[in-house]
Amino acid sequence: MRNRDVRASDADRDRAVRTLRDHAVVGRLTTEELDERSGRALGARTVGELDALLSDLPRRDRRGPGPAVAVPALLIQGVLWVLIGVVLVTIAILWALAWTGARLAAAVAARSLGPRRVPALRAGLRR
Questions:
Q1: Residue ranges covered by each domain of the chain
Q2: By C-alpha distance, which of 46, 49, 41 is closest to 20?
Q3: Tens digits of per-residue pLDDT, 3-21?
Q4: What is the pTM of this model?
């Protein structure tokens, strides 16, 4: 356990503000309470002052993972949806190019065969 009279570091203050923000996101603190406590946390000199700001809030280890765990999960889900979208768009583009290429090849073949063979070629394409 940490000594409450130990001077708080910038990292301790930042961690306390981040914890307060997480609790506000899930609805345990109002915006006014968050602003007031964050200001006090940034001005805290000792670890005890920071602990006092968090004393009436549940700890993460007792309540399971906090809202910070949801952010990476949402990010991963978003990336997966983007990848699925990219794959679907790529398939659609390739299909359109293949269809256009087949039509273009047929047109080039019809021109190169001459006017007499065009009806025979068209008849073969319709089958």
A1: 10-64, 83-126
A2: 41
A3: 778 899 999 999 999 999 9
A4: 0.47
